[in-house]
Fold this sequence. Notes:
This protein is of the alpha+beta class.
Amino acid sequence: MATESVTNGTNAANDGMSAAERLMKEHEDHHAYVEEAEDVDAPHPAPSAAPSLPVTNDPSRVASPSGEPAMSSKAAGKQPAREEQQNTTSANKPRFDTTSEDAFPALGAPKTQAAAAPNMWSKKPAAVAKAASGGAPNGTNGKGGSTASSRAGTPASGIMTPSSTAPSQGGGMAMPGRYKEAITVPFNMLTPRNLLKKPVAEVLREVSKRSKATITQREGPAGMILEGVGPVDAVRASLKEAANLLCSDQKVQVPVPASIRGRIVGKQGATIQAISKRTGARINISRQEAAELLEDDDATVDVTIEGDPFAVQMAKSDIEKIVAEHTSTVNSKLKHIPAEYYPFLMAQENARMKAMQQQQGQNLKMQFPPSHLNQQAPPEAPANRQPVTFAPQAHLPIQLSGDRQAVADMRAEIDRQVQELQRQLTLEQLAMERNRHQFIVGDMGTSLQDFLAETGCSVILPPDNDDSEMITIIGPPDRIEEATNKIYDLAAAMQSANADIGKQFANAPRGAQAHVRDLTRYLQQREYLAELERTHNSRIAPNDTGNWQIYSPDQKTAMKARTDLMNLVSGHPPTRFQPVDVDPYYHAHLREHASQHIRDTHGVRIVVPNDRDDSPVLLVYEDRVPSPEYQMPRKQPSAQEVQAFQQALQEAQQYILNLMNGHQEIVSQDVDAPAKFHDKIRRHVDKHHQALPQGQIPVQVNYGGQRQAAQQQQAPSMQLRGPQDFVDALNASLMSFIEQEKQDELERGFTMTFDFPQKYASHLIGQRGANINRLREEFDVDIQVDDGKCTLKGPEAKANACKKHLLEIVKKLDDEATHQLTIPQQYHKDLIGSGGAQLRRLQERYDVRVDFPRKQNDDGASEAGDAKGGRRGGDQGPNVVIVKGPTRGADGCRDELLSLLQYVKDNSHSDTVSVSQSQLPSLIGSGGKEMESMRLETGAQIDVPNARDAAGSNGRVEIKLRGPKQSVEAAKKLIQAKAKVFEDTVTRNLDVERRHHRIIIGQQGSTLRSIVAQAGGPEDPRSYNRMVRFPKTEAEGNNIRIEGQRAVVEQICAAIQQLVQEQESQATDFADVPQEKHRLLIGKGGETRRQFEQRFGVSINIPRQGESGPVRIAGQPEDVEKCKAHILEITKEQEGETIPVPRRFHHTISNNGQLFRNLRNNHQVTVDHAGQRPPAKPSTPTPNRSAGAAMPLITDDPSTDVENHHWELHDLNSSAEEGEIPWVLSGPSPEALAAARSKLERALQEAQKQDSIGFMILPDPRAHRHIIGQGGSVINKIRKESGANIQVPKDQTQGEAIQITGTKNGVNSAREAILEVLRNAN
Length: 1322
């Protein structure tokens, strides 16, 4: 819309006509103006504050010297003579150029106006808005300037925009009473002619009669042009009246930020009513829920404006002015742009967008969502690579933030670029092996930006949950082929290897494929395949057949990945796995509760299938070590490990079966529940489940969708699944709840309104609507609060309950008290407590809110602000603490705070200790243990500066101490003592060859411990190991690091150096000792060797068992000589004697080697057999009756029982070998040999006596006590008289035999004596 004005009288001296003649000519020859074609290149005048109807941009309406028509002769004849004389004179003088900007500078805005940015709050992009209006942007054909303010663009509805009526073009000069102005009314705003009460010409004549202006009309290319001539005010008033009569009422919607709604409405509607009264427009602003507005930072509400075009535009301008005043910075989300365009908009080559962003500086930020979130299927590829249309995804918007105008400009620029992309981009799809996708774009391929920079195209890969192999290429048609070739190059660069997993388990009990499926499920759940992929930068593609593919950048990497994979597979044979059929009802419980218990108790991992998988639950044995420390096995398990697997798997399986057996049969039950109640039913079910006893598995509830009216099926919309008794209980509860909801639905129209103080509205709504939403769910009513009124809508009983609750809240808030306490800021941190714990305790105990003042970079104050989400008011002083809540609670909290303050003051004696910054780690200790120990010991609070606190120029820092005076002094004294020790601490490094390290450490650290203790160092292993540190690996060199007090370190270094010097000056000698005598040098557990080393101060190295060689002795020459002489002395050839022993008595005499050990330990006599092999150990006879024969019967006659016993007699040596075996005795002296020979002969005699063994089985084992007698008196007497050894079984089980060993006569004598004892006992 354009405004044009023309004045007359300006060029009177130039055309030779009087004013009357020019006026007549204008009325008679009005058609002479060129108005048939609109000049689209004409600049638009600048807007002014005065609103008006749109005016035409017809250049013919602008006065110019060459543009006026010739005057008629009649009018020329009436021209006064003075004017003629003036004209004659002016012809010879230079004319004033009234169009010159230098001579007559314009008082208004420049002739051309920059294009206005689109409305920041428009829901449609600029391109859509322009298309809807049917015109090009910023003018008829896009070249003209906009007449609208830079603050907002022309609305899409085509409504007229107020424009200036001041002349800004042409060279004419305005004369009083002769003002001309024209406006253009778009055709779509005109009332149809058949609906007008009078013709247009008649309407205009009546308007002209009622005013001092003349109004005429003609049709232009964009609409009807109304032209008025006369006084300025009369022209504008007449044009407005004519437009109102000819135009229909307009209705526009202006989206504004939801946060500005209150500003537009004003207090009790004052602002919006004032706008409506001044403009005459009807204004309505939509009402939305407070919680809904708080959910979206970019939320808007619609302001609807109705009325005549002038009123609508004036009201719109006023509203946009309010928005501009309160939204200097904004956040905007562009939800209308397809995500497929994002890579092109983000491309580095997009210089225009980056330049625009740089121009805005730090006041503009733009954020694109990650590309992997785009899960939308691409459209079908068009024929002949024509441009394709993509659908936007509102949940993946581009986010802009910054200055309002900067955001609007950037939004317009993005919309412009999107239009270009819509005309340029097409797509094409190609099929590619799915496992090669990740090598095209992603972590293992090229980046999307690099691909776009190289090919000019973007790539979209199918999401992980889609098995499709189609890759989508988006780009200009002439670059698609280049992108396709690039994809093939990237995919072909990968090398592949094959791993036949099923081949290793061909003999699996459930089949190879079943085990491969189990193994795949387990490795994927544990993410071990992903770990292998990251380790080798490869891709592993498993499948159920067991023929897995491995893709890697090169063949070597593929081979390494395959080797690692096969090792991992070999460590997981079928014996580690156990499938268990479990009803899906238990899956959630197993996954969330039982799995960790089974893992900790049995070392078994549970793999639970998802809801869409009908696979069984899989048990996999891992280990009983904690799960984070578990290392995946990579080798075949041993037979013993397999046995442990099976036992653990059986125990875990039994645990699961017991869990299922403890419930009734799993059933499913359908519930007919209207879909409109589902949300409420969900909340009811949640409450029901929360009230269940701990450990009870809740019933599964599946919700169906709404029934379609076209379907007449009566399928239920809910299903319950679980144990029969649980389902019945929940079903009864649901039936009652649904019935109540149906009854409440009939009363849903009940409305109740009552007073609710507006000052408490924020408390009722809560943060982001949390409180009001909770109350709506709790009471099942709709709650609205506005202007001091609260409206409840819902069932009457629930509304009354809600009202009662809300009034109680009001009463509680009315009772609220506020205390302002003046507390010096240095005490705030102590009152708040660590992490705000003390503050939270006070707030929860007294149900109040305590606000400590915030202070930048003050951790304590920050904790205060975060403890309960409180915010400090702008007028809260740095020493003011505000307590707000119920009077009783606020008073109590105030008193306790003041008491705590007094306590802190009494215990806030402070002091500082200066220490070296490098000492802080040792003061703190591992995990803060040392510092905590000092705090407990002294009772003082010790604050150590953190790493960010810079040390002074001398490298020292201050440690702050707080607490009672006595505690602070104790802590200071303790830290000063530690500081003195630390400052006296030195570090020495000794370069000692690694071969000496073992000598310095000694056996189990004995040498090192002795060195440190003798130097005055600590005796506990942890301390002296920290003081003296040896290199752990060869890469760390030979340096031994000694750190501690100077005197101690010097002594330790001297001792080590002396020991090394002694080691380097040592002599080495060898002693030839027969291998069979090495044991004489070693002793039990190496005790003899250690004694020799300590006695002579040498090191003795004895060859291991099975190795040959001399004994190596190292030490000082004189010590080595003494030790060698001693070794040769004790290992010299000893005197020997041979005694033949019958082979049948060999094992009886040796007594399982006990005799050999006795001779060696007591007499230093050894026994060998001159190279002969000892005889095989004969089998011990056993009673035949106990091996399965019938037992003697128990009768009522005691004497009969005695005679009814079972007796067997066996020869002990009947199965032994015949002949003799030599026993060669070797000892250090004849006396030792004689003692050993004597023991051997006695043992042989005893063995010869014990040639028989008898077994007696009594019918009643209770008679054994008679044989033993009191204190063993009876059995000992029988042993002495018969000379036989008698063993009575301890077990009273029937069939156990009494064993008698000795000579044949002695065994029979003992038997008779036992029977006699039993007869006497009966």
